[in-house]
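Invent a record, attention on tokens:
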Amino acid sequence: MSRAVSTPNLRTMNIPPKYPARLVIIRHGESEQNAALDLKPELLDIDKVAAIRDADIKLTEKGTWQAKLTGQHLAKTEKYVQLAEY
């Protein structure tokens, strides 16, 4: 004898989903360090680079523009935005 098991339908029960339906991951804009490495990668000093915290590396003018443009786009297109920085 088999038994049918019914599972609740969350949509009909008006229970909000536990996880977002869409996840947007964005990388930072161009940084001064990345721009310098693109021009002369042979000048990379691993010891100096490792000693600099990511948060202390500034964005270039282009990187700032990229970040602003991305923020404007998300503000227009995404219903809920939650930012997380590391």
